[in-house]
């Protein structure tokens, strides 16, 4: 099969187009012929080596964390899927590799593709939607009537986060540039702040939840917009000790992450608010619930650009630029 790989961590090297053997399907896996693959900042960060201590991958490595396609083989113990099923997924860590023609995925990480959207739209959903689901439903327990601040509302995570928060009955504030006001308003944003002109921390107050996706300075400002007992959930770091425990990291890494997160943890405690880091995980059951919301019209995909398979390097560069509205997708088949 054709695939794009890396042979080492590098910020400057391009992905290499090559031939690889078709994946061997284990008893609890399905083989998916990939139609489309979503592109995420996580792919760029892994390529650059930003996560090499947390996710020590082996080379050659096929990147890609989002997939939509057709099941072509099933393992002996697979019970939930059959050949011909249209599916979508965020493969688990160490089992990624959607910048290719085929991928083997554990059936517990897969869901049936929503019937009312295209393969390209389906490929844009898994990683960002699972991130938002786990932030708002698992960590924040977001409730009707609460207020949530979502940074970068026009981005891949932001566009889905606004919609899920509104579905849950929250009031939503977000930051974006003036050119994206109409987009985030159409998704349900109630309070829209032009980050180029205004300081959100001077406008927002008494919020219940902040979804942080930006830098450390923005994170510290975000703590100040929360009411006592509110929570910041960060998907951009710093990782904390709770994450280290969940990930089964060594005592040394737990110590490293304690010191990395200590400053923001102390500031949060002083303000009587909470801080937690989220590194989303694959979950086919949650993806099935998200699929139902898409079919009901509560969530719609937002796609910026669809690239061809041959343009995978260009797609990754575009995502790295931070200019995309919604998601970037590669059409493989």
From TrEMBL:
Superkingdom of this entry's organism?
Bacteria
The entry's protein name is: NADP-dependent oxidoreductase
Q: Could you tell me which species this protein originates from?
A: Pedobacter riviphilus
* Short name of any one Pfam family annotated for the protein: ADH_N
- Highest lineage ranks of the organism? Bacteria, Pseudomonadati, Bacteroidota, Sphingobacteriia, Sphingobacteriales
Enoyl reductase (ER) domain spans which residues?
Answer: 11-330
């Amino acid at each position: 099969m054709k695939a794009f790989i890396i042979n080492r961590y590098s910020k400057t090297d391009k992905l290499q187009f090559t031939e690889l053997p078709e994946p061997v399907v284990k008893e609890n896996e399905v083989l998916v012929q990939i139609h489309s693959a979503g592109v995420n900042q996580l792919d760029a960060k892994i390529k650059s080596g930003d996560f090499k201590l947390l996710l020590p991958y082996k080379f050659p490595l096929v990147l890609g964390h989002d997939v939509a396609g057709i099941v072509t083989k099933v393992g002996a113990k697979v019970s939930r899927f059959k050949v011909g099923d249209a599916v979508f997924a965020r493969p688990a860590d160490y089992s990624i590799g959607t910048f290719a023609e085929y991928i083997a995925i554990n059936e517990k990480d897969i869901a049936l593709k929503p019937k009312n959207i295209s393969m390209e739209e389906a490929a844009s959903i898994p990683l960002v939607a699972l991130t938002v689901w786990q932030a708002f439903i698992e960590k924040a327990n977001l409730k009707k009537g609460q207020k949530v601040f979502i940074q970068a509302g026009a981005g891949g995570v932001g566009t889905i986060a606004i919609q899920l928060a509104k579905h849950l009955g929250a009031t939503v504030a977000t930051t974006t540039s003036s050119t994206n006001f109409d987009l985030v308003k159409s998704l349900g944003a109630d309070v829209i702040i032009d980050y180029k002109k205004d300081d959100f921390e001077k406008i927002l107050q008494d919020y219940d939840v902040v979804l942080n996706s930006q830098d450390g300075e923005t994170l510290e400002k975000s703590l100040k917009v929360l009411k006592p007992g509110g929570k910041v959930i960060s998907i951009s770091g710093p990782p904390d000790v709770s994450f280290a425990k969940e990930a089964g990291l060594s005592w040394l890494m737990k110590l490293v992450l304690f010191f990395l997160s200590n400053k923001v943890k102390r500031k949060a405690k002083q303000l009587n608010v909470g801080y937690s880091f989220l590194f989303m995980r694959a979950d086919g059951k949650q993806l099935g619930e998200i699929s139902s919301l898409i079919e009901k019209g509560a969530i719609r995909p937002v796609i910026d650009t669809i690239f061809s398979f041959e343009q995978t390097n260009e797609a990754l560069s575009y995502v790295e630029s931070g200019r995309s509205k919604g998601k970037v997708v590669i059409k493989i088949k």
